[in-house]
Amino acid sequence: MQQLTIFMDIESSRSYIDELYSSEAAKTQEALVTLKNSVIGSNRQKSSVIQQGIVPRLLQLMSDEEIDPNIRLEATITIGSLAKGTAENVNSLVEQGAALALVELLRTVPIGTKLIEAALCALRSIFLHPPAPITTLPADMMLLSRLTQIAREGTPTARACVVRILSIWCGGPLEQEALCAAGACGAAAALLSSRSTPPPARALPALDLLAAMCFENASVSHTAMNTKHGEKTIPELLTFLVSRDKPLPVALGAARCLTFIHRAGALPSDDNRVVFGALPCLARLCTKDMPEDIRATAAETLAYLAEVDTSLQRLAAISNHLMSSLAEIVNCPSAAAKQGAFKCFASLGANDEDIRKRIIETHGLMVHVVNGMNNPEPTVRLAAVRCLHSLSRSVQQLRTTFQDHAVWRPLMQLLNDSPGNELLTVGSSTLCNLLLEFSPAKEPMLDQGAVEMLCNLTKRPEAALRLNGIWALMNMAFQAEQKVKQRILCCLGTEQMFRLLGDSDTRVIMKTLGLLRNLLSTRQHIDAIMGEYSSQVMQAVIVVLEGSYPAEVKEQALCILGNIGDGEKAKDLIMANEDVLRKLVDYLAHPESKLQEAALFVAGNLVWRGEAGAAARQARLADLGVLRALKLLYARHDAKHLHDKVTTALAQFNEFT
Amino acid sequence: MNYLVTEGFKEAAIKFQQEAGLQEPALCSSLDERIMIREAVQSGRIPEAIAMVNALHPELLDNDRYLYFHLQQLQLLELIRAGRAEEALSFASATLAEAGASDRAALAELERSLALLAFPDPHASPFADLLLPAHSQKIASELNAAILKMENQEYTNPKLCSLLRMILWSQSELDKHNVKYPKMTDLANATIEQPK
Predict the structure, then answer these.
(1) Cα separation, A531 vs A192, whole angstroms
(2) Pairing of strands B191-193, B183-186
(3) Please, how many CA atoms are within 13 Å of residue A598, restricted to the half-sphere of its CB?
(4) Tell me, what's the pLDDT at A5?
(5) Is A6–B54 a contact, with Cβ atoms under 8 angstroms apart?
(6) φ, ψ for residue A557 (rounded to 5)?
(7) Which of A222, A214, A230, A134 lies closest to A179 in space, CA to CA?
(8) Nearest-CA neighbor of A590 among A581, A599, A582, A603?
(9) Which pairing describes strands A232-233 and B183-186: parallel, antiparallel, or unpaired?
(10) pLDDT tens digits, residue range A320-342?
């Protein structure tokens, strides 16, 4: 037995490293033990021996099926220790094929041996260092079945290791389906059941695996619902674990699983296990005396749970003083905590006005939201904007709180600062809402380049972004000053407008026409704009009236025409266009009621007696058959609701025509 | 029984089990090893103790670097106690410096240990407590608890200790509020006095 010296320096370590290559088993074993004892606990030693190039030799000893099992074991344990070093150590190991070699070991070594336990510990340590080498574990059924077998039959340590590895490996639908087919749900259930609470070291990896498998996967979630261990199903096991007396990470993990199973569609939102299980647990885990990291994850999970269901939002809002708990979490230093809290506020305030009011009344929240938008972490900024977005759906808030806090300023800054797609989508939706209200903020927003930014959005390939862009412009144009309208038209350009009128998304077309309609309101504006853009506007209207668009789109075009018809000088532009006038006649006789009404609106404006040149216009229109069409409309049974307007229009005409 | 097993009094535990007629298989698998490890630590044979721990639970000292540091520190103190100052300094810079660099608490303790070298008689210095057997006993208990935790034992401290602490605390709380109750005045004999 080699003398155990106090410490090894680099020189003396060389001697025992040479012995690693010895042909005598006893010497190799001794050298391995010495090596192992020198690297455990010291990153410096780990780096040193890796640099000396012993990893290939260790892998060789580990994988050789002919040699003494004790040597294989010591070599594997040593690799495991190296994997607990620095990130560079782990990268080195992976580059030299350690992960692959360990996976191969798992295929062949018998379950229940110390060797397989050591191999799993080593592989787990490697996987715990991001980025985990998931490609070293192929999704082949034989391997996965072996792994789930280990998860059911191995030693406690082996089971915990394999489940932890799989929970990290399970990254998407492919892995989820493969694991499900290999029986991983049952293996996880086995680790969760116990007469009393399973120890966290065993339960947590299983909960994480279950969560990873069920995330956004309906079929796996349904399988999980029906998987049993002994007498209990997985949902029963999970419900047992969310109660008050369980260790916090375990309760959180179980609540997370239930949340994912519900969102994937396998549990309805009014199910007891959600309403009395997951939700109150998560609300409780947000309270002030919980550790910060628990609160952060609980808030984020609750945000996901309540994201789309109004009943859950309402329930959460009254649970366990959640609002004040979340306000505390927003104050926490870590990015994860702030992000979780903002997201949770965003979910809770998504649909219900009362909840929004309560959120705003939460002391100092708006200041936090504005600060959040200036936070150095991008995830926090995005979450703060989401929160703002939910709150911006409240008209009352738009008129009061949002004015007070000038939220548009940091929002504009974010939108101008090359944001990612997610931020751009949420941010532009929020801007849309902010622009709805007549507010003094509109002008400064122009100075910040809002128009240019929105016009650029309309050119994006993503339909959602184009829609937000044009919708925001439409809101901006509503009751705006002339110079704002000019700015919009000038910046967007008629060419882009035509492109948008041919967009694949009908909503974009509708909002473009809505923009035009808002631009063409107020007499002076109508005349001014038509003075400059008459041919393009008329052409746009004709394009829509002639094309195969749905009725509501054509209705918008007719309304625009109607607005033009209200302009003093602009009327003449319509009168001069025979094509349009003939269409008008057609539409007065159209079977669709809303189109009749819109056409009537146009006709009504054109024949209005009080305007200069009315007589001439009336004569022309009568020539083209408008008068006759009006009379026919009057007689129609299905147009009774339009009677008053038709009568008014007819009354404009002079007696003798 | 729990106390005897946790603290490693094997013969006493076996005797006790026989005399009390206890059924429970409380003599868990690692009892022998834990006894040997504790002996090694308390006798200053640190490399031997580390090797035994690594054979029993190879991940333990990698997972708990602070514990590993404490064991290395004991080795350092052995060298200082034996008067081998130069070796002590080389050892400190080669091995302990690593832990000291990453953990502030470890650095403070390292500094205290090395400060012993500044005194001609370390046993008379302000840091002499580090050289007392009580210190190595403390580290030995720390290591014992870590091993038990690794084996998923629920109680890493003997239940008796927690019970005693609970009695002392509750009695002091009751005294603070001037409540009359049957008080345990003699802990060693468990004598209870009725209130007057």
Answers:
(1) 75
(2) antiparallel
(3) 24
(4) 47
(5) no
(6) -60, -40
(7) A214
(8) A599
(9) unpaired
(10) 799 999 999 999 999 999 999 99
Distance CA A8, CA A635 (A): 108
Which residue(s) pair with B192 in the sheet? B184
* Mean pLDDT, rounded, for A234-247: 93
CA nearest to A646, candidates A657, A613, A632: A632
**Could you tell me the two tokens for A153?**
């039959």
Which amino acid would we find at residue B140? A
The chain A residue lying nearest B64, using CA atoms, is A41
Least confident of A198-202, A471-475, A510-514: A198-202
**What's the confidence (pLDDT) of residue A2?**
37
Chain A residues with CB under 8 Å of B77 CB are none
Q: What is the 3-state secondary structure (H, E, C) of A486-508?
A: HHHHHHHCHHHHHHHHCCCCHHH
Token pair belonging to A557: 């075009």
| Token digits of residue B92 | 């400190």
Q: Model pTM?
A: 0.82
The predicted complex's ipTM stands at 0.80
**Residue holding tokens 């639908």?**
A173
pLDDT higher than 70, residue A3: no
Q: How far apart are CA B12 and CA B7, in angstroms?
A: 11
Query: A 115-174 residues with CB below 8 A of B?
Result: 118, 121, 156
| A358-393 per-residue burial string, b: 16 or more CB within 10 A, e: under 16 | ebbeeeebbebbbebbebeeeebbbbbbbbbbbbbb
Mutate one of A40, A78, A126 to test the B interface: name it (highest B CB count within 10 A): A40
- Please state, for a pLDDT cut of 70, what percent of chain A lies above it: 96
Place of tokens 């101008």: A416
The H-or-E segment that residue A538 falls in is helix A523-546
| H-assigned helices in A406-505 | 408-416, 421-434, 442-447, 450-457, 463-477, 482-492, 494-501
The pLDDT-based confidence of B120 (bands split at 50, 70, 90) is: confident
The residues, any chain, with a CB within 8 Å of residue A653's CB and separated by 6 or more, are A607, A618, A622, A627
Q: Give me the pLDDT at residue A398, please.
A: 72
Contact predicate A475/A513, CB 8 Å:
no
- From B73's Cα to the closest Cα of chain A, the distance in A is 12
Phi, psi dihedrals of residue A228, rounded to the nearest 5°: -120, 150
In the beta sheet, which residues pair with residue B184?
B192
Q: Which residue has the higher pLDDT, A548 or B40?
A: B40
Contact A381, A423 (CB under 8 A): yes
* H or E element, residue A228: strand A228-229
Stronger pLDDT, B152 or B39, i.e. the higher one:
B39
- Mean pLDDT of all residues in A43-58: 93
Confidence (pLDDT) at A19: 85
B interface mutation test: which of A39, A42, A120 has the most B CBs within 10 A? A42
Single-letter code of the amino acid located at A653: F
pLDDT at position A440 is 59
Mean pLDDT score of chain A: 89
What is the DSSP code string of A168-197? Answer: HH--SHHHHHHHHHTTHHHHHHHHH--SSP
Residue A455, token pair as written in the block = 């016009």
DSSP-based three-state secondary structure for A232: strand
Least confident of A186-200, A393-407, B127-141: A393-407
Of B48, B62, B87, the CB nearest to A4: B48
Q: Which of A37, A118, A201 sits opposite B51 (nearest CB)?
A: A37
Residue closest to A290 by CA, chosen among A245, A253, A325: A325
